[in-house]
Amino acid sequence: MRATCWHGKRDMRVDDVPEPKILNPRDAIVKITSTAICGSDLHLYNGFIPTLKKGDILGHEFMGEVVDVGRDVHNLTVGDRVVVPFPIACGACLACEAKMYSLCENSNPNAWLAEKMMGHSPAGVFGYSHMMGGFAGGQAEYARVPFADVGPLKVPDGMPDEQVLFLSDILPTGYMAAEMCDIKPGDTVAVWGCGPVGQFAIASAKMLGAAQIIAIDRFSERLTMAVAKAGATDSINYSEQDVLEALKDLTGGVGPDACIDAVGSEAHAHGAIYAYDRFKQALMLESDRPIALRQAIMACRNGGTVSVIGVYGGFIDKFPMGSFMNRSLTMRTGQCHVHRYMKPLLERIQKGDIDPSFVITHRMKLDDVADGYAMFCDKEDDCVKIVLTP
Amino acid sequence: MEVTEQVSRARTYPGPWRDPQRRGTRRDRVQQHSNGMDAAAIARGLGWFSITLGLAELLAPRFVSRFVGGRGNNTALIRLYGVREIVSGMMIFGQGKNPSTALWSRVAGDAIDIATLATAAASPGVRRGALAFATANVLGVTALDVYCARELSRDDRAPADGTIRMARSVVINRPPETLYQFWHDFENFPRFMYHLKSVRATGARTSHWVANGPAGANIEWDAEITADTPNELIAWRSLDDADVPNSGIVEFRRRPGNRGTIVRVEVEYKPPAGKLGAIVAKLFNESPEQQIYDDLHRMKQVIETGDVVRSDGSTAGMGSIRQDAARPQLTNGGVR
After folding, report:
1. pTM score, two decimals?
2. Residues B174, B92 share a domain
3. Which residues in chain A are closer than 8 Å to B304, comparing Cβ atoms?
4. Is B228 on the interface with A (CB under 8 A)?
């Protein structure tokens, strides 16, 4: 089969590889009908996530048709149409019982590797380095899905792929970012980063009752989408405005009740701070550039919440702990516990509360995936989200 | 009332060895081994010495140069050495009770000092007497540094006779009764302990074990249960003619609040080629700690999910040292 393989920094190729087989009795094999490139795949593409190996298949947002099931999978049958959540979860450990699916204690066979980096290991993830399990990803024709009796969500035939594909990651991820803000009627929420997750965080904040939603980015087309499609009430282009001053002005000086960092480790900025973080990163003195996170903390109102959904990989520098501690802020974080949100969000899509396909700007064939990565990474052609079909 | 009970139950972490005979912190061991010379106390003295000497080198490099027989030049170099001394000194205090790394850094610094003094001896205009006195002093301090560094680097897990000990825990989402029963059936073990080939019960308290040894050879032994408290613990030891004499204990402790059971294993064994065998095993990245960690986590997977979890990169599951690329492999043995 054809599959998207990582061969090095900014070097993606479509290789011919063997088709997956059932390895565990609770596996299923899915013939992929739609898949996507995630913003977090760009961290792999740019070589910021350690423990990738040449030839690894990437991709963790995918859906398709079940073509084979292991002997212990009783909820799926061949021919079912399913969306697959990106974290792999066993459904039986204490973390899964607590619905913290992205922290499954059993699904990462390389947990010891992740423990060396992070102290404890999160769940295994499709196509996201060996530290995260060494699972083949879904930017391919077929994928093996472990714990197929727990993860995949069956979707009704009438709904097109593009409406339900993002239940695999970015829609629940954006939703969890907003949910972590514990939004009360009348709240103001600011969102750093208007990529697909930021767009869905904005849309979710609106669904959860936020009164004012402020979108922050440097690309005017993303800000336009945030206001016109996702439901932001204000936008700040940080290329033109000082973010902290603008947020004060928009909130009467108190700051947003909640701040969402939907940027993560490869933040951009202008001026000295950006140069500082690029320099430290180049010298391997910090692994991540926490520019958005620092701003989110400084901007948040006293006693407010900072919700971190953008992906970080390692260590950061100049964390404003004084601001964080003295002003009674709360930080909530996590890789999305996708399994928790798939069904309720499918219902919201069916009811018409949200049509997630608004983020799609490009549709490509799997064979052109290398161009897709380059375009998405460099934000060419106003690219926000690419959907691939085999 | 509740508070008092909590306080009476609270205790200081005793280190990994629950058996009082094995128990002891590194510092205790250093004191036992050194006939009253307390390496940790000497290390603290060396720390203050480092900082004092470093400050002198940093603030009065000319004086230091003349004191060791030089001509008062090379002040930049001496200042640099001063910074090095201060860093070493601070590291000694920064590393708490076991500053062995800092002491090894001091030993490296001593080597640089000796080399510098030797170079100086060859240059004109030095006062040989003062230089010899300084060199003797540095050699004395070096001896102390080496002594302390070696004492403090002694590894608890590797006593002099080559016995290897380890302790690891895992939490499993099952009651102690279930886990005790699972563990009692030794014949289950090869499913998740990859180094075992087979285990066969030979009597009510005895069993025969076959493990994969080095270079394809089998290692075999008979074991007997030495303690057995239902739902709480099982202890065992190998019988006299074992290839690899070993013993161990597993305890099952219910976590408060219905949060599964802590399974804690303590194992002790004497590898075939003594210490060398362990070093070789480590070279091949199969440290005993890693093995028992992998075994326990595979056991957790088998009990909680029904099977060892495999990925395309780790087709053997938890503990695969060799990582294939994360893509389907032609050689994968599928199951159904």
Report:
1. 0.80
2. no
3. 90, 92-93, 105-106
4. no
